[in-house]
Amino acid sequence: MTDTLNAGTPTDGSRGDRSPAVAARASFGRTVGVAKPWGHEALFADGTHGYVGKLIFVRAGESLSLQLHAQKDETLTVVFGQARLEHGEDPARLVSRTLRPGDVVHLPATVLHRVTAVGDLLFAEASTAAPGWREDVVRFADRYGREGTTKP
């Protein structure tokens, strides 16, 4: 009988079609913590495999920059807390939406956006990782003196 949770995996302990070389490709590491003026982030995928993954903690009342990315697409999901997401094409006409645990938003490249923590907030971010992804940010407004820069 086939295990429905592992459909396609042999139940006799063999590897089936998977070669030992595939299993040997697993790699392990540690998250990289980065302090930010609004909280901190833990980078768990650094782009070397084609994507970036972060856990982002924002202190209550703090905000990330009003920003956009020229190439980078992002998908966010709230783990705990509440966020106010402002987004749009024009800084003067942003739409605001409250995000709660389990809510997901996809932000394509060039969409202006800003996340504000209503209370303490933890969200996960998955994004594309084109060369230069760390500098792919245009800040339109920033509470912490980083407007117009790509500084972390």
From TrEMBL:
List each copy of the Mannose-6-phosphate isomerase type II C-terminal domain by range. Answer: 33-121
The family database entries (InterPro entries) matched by this protein are listed as: Man6P_isomerase-2_C, RmlC-like_jellyroll, RmlC_Cupin_sf
Q: Where is the composition biased (Polar residues)?
A: 1-12
Q: What Pfam families does this protein's entry cite?
A: MannoseP_isomer (PF01050)
**What Gene3D superfamilies does this protein map onto?**
Jelly Rolls
User: Region (Disordered) spans which residues?
Assistant: 1-22
Superkingdom field: Bacteria
Name of the protein: Cupin domain-containing protein
Species this chain originates from: Cellulomonas alba
Organism lineage? Bacteria, Bacillati, Actinomycetota, Actinomycetes, Micrococcales
